[in-house]
Amino acid sequence: MLTVHHLNNSRSQRVLWMLEELGVEYELKRYQRDPRTMLAPPELRAVHPLGKSPVVTDGDLTLAESGAIIDYLVERYGDGRFSPPPGTSAERVRYNYWMHYAEGSAMPPLLLKLVARRLESAKMPFFARPIARRIAQTMQSSFIDPQLRLHFGYIEAALAKSTWFAGETFSAADVQMSFPLETGGQRAGAKSMPHIRAFLERIHARPAYQRALERGGRYDFAT
């Protein structure tokens, strides 16, 4: 049976969602972040050398990276569902684009925002705190926040043109894009944008999404 190695509040939540959409049975192994560092526990390194989540095992296969996992699941278990037919149709090109954009372009500035916020609040000698805060604030105002506005404005405009990322049909690209939009709702004010907010409301209302929340446990980014 396919096993998902699931870390709380992580990208692996969308893997659970994809499996629920597909109706595939799976085993769930839970891992909790270190409450101090917020990193994955060392036990995950026994599953994959990078020690990160998501990771799935399916028979002899061990596969990491959420985009690769979702591609694999749709190809193996989808029976033509959740992706446009292979080829060069406009829907397929858009599908491939957003599947890669999610991690390649959307997530880096969100990660930098998280790092900058942690730098602002990091425990350090008192004489270093003003310097650290000034560096973090400069990073955010000069680069991170403008990048977030650029990317989420771009995504908002894309969702103004169609209901879903690949067109008018829900696909795995919407699953893949869910994590940057959910984290962006907390770190970049993305929920204030009407089309992004409507997209989040649509995905959160899906029965498979709700089942994934029940299986995966607390997931702060959905709130």
Q: Helix and strand succession?
A: EHEEEHHHHHH
CATH fold-level label of the largest domain: Glutathione S-transferase Yfyf (Class Pi), Chain A, domain 2
- How many discrete domains? 2
- What's the count of strands? 4
CATH architecture of the largest domain: Up-down Bundle
Query: Could you describe the largest sheet, including whether it forms a barrel?
Result: 4 strands, mixed
What value does the average pLDDT take? 92
CATH class of the largest domain: Mainly Alpha
* Structure class: alpha+beta
In spatial order, strands of the major sheet run: 2-1-3-4
User: Beta fraction of the residues?
Assistant: 5-15%
Instruction: Name the helicity range.
Output: 55-70%
Q: How much is the radius of gyration in Å?
A: 18 Å
Distance between the termini: 31 Å
Oligomer: single chain
Q: Helix segment count?
A: 7
Shape: globular
Contiguous runs where pLDDT drops below 50 for at least 5 residues: none
InterPro entries: Glutathione-S-Trfase_C-like, Glutathione-S-Trfase_C_sf, Glutathione_S-Trfase, Glutathione_S-Trfase_N, GST_C, Thioredoxin-like_sf
GO cellular component, one term: cytoplasm
Protein name: glutathione transferase
Keywords: Transferase
Descriptive tags:
Glutathione S-transferase Yfyf (Class Pi), Chain A, domain 2, transferase, 2 domains, peroxidase activity, four-stranded mixed β-sheet, single chain, glutathione transferase activity
Account of the 3D structure:
The chain is of the alpha+beta class and 223 residues long. It has helices at 12-22, 66-77, 90-121, 129-159, 172-187, 194-204, 207-216; strands at 2-7, 26-31, 55-58, 61-64. The chain has a four-stranded mixed sheet with strand order 2-1-3-4, with helices on one face. Strand 3 (55-58) and strand 4 (61-64) form a beta hairpin. It is globular and about 60 Å long. The two termini are 31 Å apart.
